[in-house]
Design a protein that fits this description.
single chain; 376 residues; alpha/beta; Rossmann fold; DNA Methylase, Chain A, domain 2; eight-stranded mixed sheet; 13 helices
Length: 376
């Protein structure tokens, strides 16, 4: 491709576009452009198109690929739905979502892409299915570059979210010995570990400036206040919130107010230390999931205030910029936030991919020599 053209991206199972945000916003925006994005979530595609142009299509990928021509692209990114690989899914055997990597690989092949980035839950890399993915990639002429489980906190996200990243490169377009090592070097370190890198970013640094939320609905206000709304908890829920101390969780609720602790929690004396827990100001958040507005689902109480975190606070802890536009109902937006790839983490992956692609562009003659066996 010409050096003057942007690298063309296809984003599959794109959701709201957290992964695309890392490629096409901020410092990487001058280098990449979207040519296609697919997802079966209507609200998520509305959000994607509001941020990246009208390239998103609401569709079932298995049906779309049988009826449409895949556009040419340099890079295919995305994460086939992860629940089939996830430890959170108790019925993993036979989960049809495991097979969605197959149309993902079909689109890579038909697009003529040089690189693909597959993002997923950590369990992907140890699954039987991943061996099938590897074999399919190799049959298409791709080499996988040290698939790894990475902690987003190591890359500037205020959240200890672990994700599997598998990057594949078309072997005949690169010189193996000169490919930069994957994964990229971390930019931050665990605060308990010595080193020159700055410590993990904290909850305080990302949400500490926000006022108390107002109302219970999305508001027609400029960001960050548009998504900074609360809930309408019952009096019992408010009592439970107040019974959880700084850094506490459901066990503190049980200790301090057994009279208002759910009976099922009293019976369960082990596990679940994040349930009904408070975030810590001076640490990254736990993994933000799709129901972060329900403290019974995890450590989603505000560090000080007696309430769950807001949609804006969750979006910031995912590293979304305030000017990223979310569309849909409250529940739909929460799903978009919790299912996303943190954009700052995605930006680090995009920068690595850009290095690969610039190498391919800058050293095309050397690549051709090695392919034809004429290298000196």
């Amino acid at each position: 491709m010409s050096k003057t053209n942007k690298l063309k991206i296809i984003d599959l199972f794109c959701g709201a576009g957290g992964l695309s945000c890392g490629f096409m916003k901020g410092k990487n925006g001058a280098h990449f452009e979207s040519v296609l994005a697919l997802d079966n979530d209507k609200a998520a595609i509305r959000t994607y198109n509001a941020n990246f142009g009208e390239h998103g299509i609401v569709t079932n990928i298995e049906e779309w690929i049988t009826e449409n021509t895949v556009p040419e692209a340099d890079i295919v990114i995305g994460g086939p739905p992860c629940q089939g690989f996830s430890l959170l899914n108790k019925n993993r055997e036979g989960d049809h979502r495991r097979a969605l990597w197959e149309p993902y690989m079909d689109i890579i092949e038909r697009s003529g892409a040089s690189v693909f980035v597959m993002e997923n839950v950590p369990g992907l890399l140890t699954s039987d299915e991943f061996q099938d993915i590897r074999e399919r990639a190799e049959s298409m002429g791709f080499l996988l570059l040290n698939p790894s489980v990475l902690n987003t906190a190591d890359y500037g996200v205020p959240q200890t979210r672990k994700r599997a990243i598998a990057i594949g490169i078309k072997k005949d377009r690169f010189v193996r010995g000169d490919i930069p090592a994957f994964p990229p070097a971390p930019s931050h370190r665990h605060p308990d570990k010595a080193g020159d890198l700055p410590a993990w970013l904290t909850v305080r640094e990302f949400i500490g400036d926000l006022p108390e939320p107002v109302g219970t609905e999305v508001r027609d206000l400029p960001p960050p206040l548009d998504l900074h709304f609360g809930r309408n908890p019952t009096a019992l829920s408010q009592e439970r919130y107040r019974a959880v101390p700084v850094g506490g969780n459901r066990f503190d609720l049980q200790k301090n107010r057994p009279d208002i602790t759910p009976a099922c929690w009293i019976k369960k004396t082990s596990g679940g230390t994040d349930l009904f827990g408070r975030l810590w100001w001076e640490r990254p958040s736990v993994t933000i999931r799709t129901e972060f507005f329900k403290p019974e689902k995890g450590r989603y109480l505000h560090p000080e205030s007696h309430r769950p975190i807001t949609h804006r606070e969750a979006a910031r802890l995912m590293s979304f910029p305030d000017d990223f536009v979310f569309l849909g109902s409250k529940t739909e937006i929460a799903r978009q936030i919790g299912n996303a790839v943190p954009p700052v983490f995605a930006q680090k992956i995009a920068t690595y991919v850009l290095t690969l692609m610039e190498y391919q562009i800058q050293h095309g003659e050397k690549i051709e020599e090695e392919r034809t066996g004429n290298a000196a």
